[in-house]
């Protein structure tokens, strides 16, 4: 029986040199492979391996949280969930995730396509780069993966078998339940807001009963509303881009949860990028165009998601929920449209809530965002973070009274001028 052993740039060629798929993709002579470890996430090792014929990514889970160290064990099986999520996402929205070459469950290794010249979306946004296609691509990805993984599309036996497969991703769900929904709202051990200038606002948020009740209501949805297979960690660090292409990576947090969760997390990261822009402005080079682009992109993602979800509702509704026999067979098209509007409205309200909570945890919790963390001047950084915290509170607490993303845009623009 094989035993898990972490790879290193030095050991990788000898360890994987006999793998026929890798040899075919990269080149047969592993002694000539060049290996660089490029992992900058919180959990895993990521290597770029280049040979005579080409290159591939080798991603390996570690038995602990890389960000914290061996004191925080984390099971290798997350790699199994990531692999299975990638397979499903690839079938549900072809071309939007990297091609998978090979999976080894014991060594927790996924070998996949090396995306080049792609860069991490978060990095591009920090650099002030406006990507023309991401709004539409990401809106479609969310609608297609979330609709097609739900009871609106899947037959019940298949969906329940898949829920059982992903039900064991307990430890990663536990991270989200604690780090996202609870820790930011009390003085949890792992919290580390990096701007003491925020202390008064942080104290205010931690004493905010309405906010804490909403955070727990959203945690309840996260843990109990098993609607669809979510990516589980869909932030701008989980997206790779060029001007022409968008790819979604890293679904190791995949779980059955609310349709709204991925969309909310994703939009939160665009709102945070919006508020971080002033921290990255230098000299006379303002970022007004970038700010407008980010707010436009948020609206494009949401409108594309809505339109595609509605399209799939009308053309692919084959699951147990709102079956066509209930409406269309009886000539009652309006009934199906009424149900669609109710479902979309619920997704919208929940999405705003999840977005608000995600904005808080990235500033108050353990896992921060480079958007804010790379702002060197502590006062500028705190100013940006303060605005994001305020918008986050507004979204979480007032989500039932915010009628459209145009209203959120107006609030974000007002906060930006503060
Ligand atoms: C301990 S893991 C912290 C965070 O990193 C991942 O990317 C997830 O966002 C998680 O919450
Ligand atoms: Mg990740």
Write up this protein:
The chain is an alpha+beta fold. The protein folds into two domains: 12-113, Phosphorylase Kinase, domain 1, CATH 3.30.200; 119-417, Aminoglycoside 3'-phosphotransferase, Chain: A, domain 2 (Alpha-Beta Complex), CATH 3.90.1200. Helices cover 51% and strands 12% of the residues. It has 15 helices and twelve strands. It has helices at 12-16, 20-26, 78-92, 121-126, 134-148, 156-166, 170-179, 199-206, 209-224, 259-280, 288-316, 333-364, 370-373, 378-398, 405-417; strands spanning 34-37, 44-50, 55-61, 64-65, 69-73, 100-104, 109-113, 119-120, 228-230, 239-241, 246-248, 255-257. The strands form four sheets. It has a five-stranded antiparallel sheet, with helices on both faces. Strands 8-10-11 form a three-stranded antiparallel sheet. Helix 10 runs antiparallel to helix 14. It is globular. The termini are far apart. The model has no long low-confidence stretch (mean pLDDT 96). The structure holds 5-S-methyl-5-thio-alpha-D-ribofuranose and magnesium ion. 5-S-methyl-5-thio-alpha-D-ribofuranose binds at residues 41-43, 65, 67, 175-176, 179, 233, 366-367.
